């Protein structure tokens, strides 16, 4: 796993990346590849990583647990980060990208995915109304928020799925991390 990378085409971008092997991946025991429920895993690295200006942590979303994310994340919009394509069927990007995405209500998200074999329940949060969205290659990346006035970024979601990229009629769907805090801590 590469940490601290910003542009894979050059070493002149100022970033000092580190490559660390993965010891194991622990997938959620109730992961369902057909409905995409419980789309979350924990990656354990073979060694500890030292923090640098390019490598830092993000907090677990303890402060967001049980909160109405549609309200809390309304303004400012949460941030997505990834290496994925910037258009449907496009290739992966060589530079790490980020964008803000507006949160979509559960009601609107459920309506959008009505007829698709997925459950837009309380373990998911939806974001993106077209133009700015995650895309192929962004799965597993973070939906980040710093909304509670404590100057701490938290991972409130993990990019899970969507239909194409940037479609106003299909928001991106993210695994809601605060719903899995007990499982995450039980793996540590």
Q: What's the gyration radius in Å?
A: 16 Å
Average residue-wise pLDDT = 92
What is the global morphology? globular
Number of strands: 11
CATH class reads: Mainly Beta
Summarize the model shown.
The protein is mainly beta.
What does this structure look like?
By secondary structure, the protein is mainly beta. The chain has one domain (2-187): Thrombin, subunit H, CATH 2.40.10. 10% of the residues lie in helices and 24% in strands. It has three helices and eleven strands; from the N terminus they run E-E-E-E-H-E-E-E-H-E-E-E-E-H. It has helices at 69-72, 106-112, 181-187; strands at residues 2-3, 18-19, 22-27, 41-45, 79-82, 97-100, 103-104, 124-127, 142-145, 154-161, 172-176. The longest helix is centred in the middle third of the chain and has 7 residues, at 106-112. The two termini are 19 Å apart. The mean pLDDT is 92.
């Amino acid at each position: 796993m590469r940490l601290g990378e910003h542009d894979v085409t050059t070493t002149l971008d100022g970033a000092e990346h580190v490559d660390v092997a993965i010891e194991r991946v622990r997938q959620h025991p109730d992961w369902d590849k057909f409905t995409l429920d419980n789309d979350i895993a924990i990656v354990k690295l073979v060694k500890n990583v030292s923090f640098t200006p390019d490598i830092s942590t993000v907090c677990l979303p303890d402060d967001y647990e049980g909160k109405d994310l549609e309200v809390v994340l309304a303004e400012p919009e949460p941030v997505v980060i990834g290496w994925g394509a910037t258009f449907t069927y496009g290739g992966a990007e060589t530079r790490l990208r980020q964008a803000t995405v507006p949160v979509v209500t559960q009601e609107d998200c459920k309506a959008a995915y009505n007829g698709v074999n997925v459950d837009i329940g309380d373990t998911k949060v939806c974001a993106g109304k077209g133009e700015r969205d995650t895309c192929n290659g962004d799965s597993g990346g973070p939906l980040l928020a710093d909304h509670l006035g404590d100057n701490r970024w938290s991972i409130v979601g993990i990019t899970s799925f969507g239909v194409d990229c940037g479609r106003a009629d299909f928001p991106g769907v993210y695994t809601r991390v605060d719903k899995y805090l007990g499982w995450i801590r039980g793996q540590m």
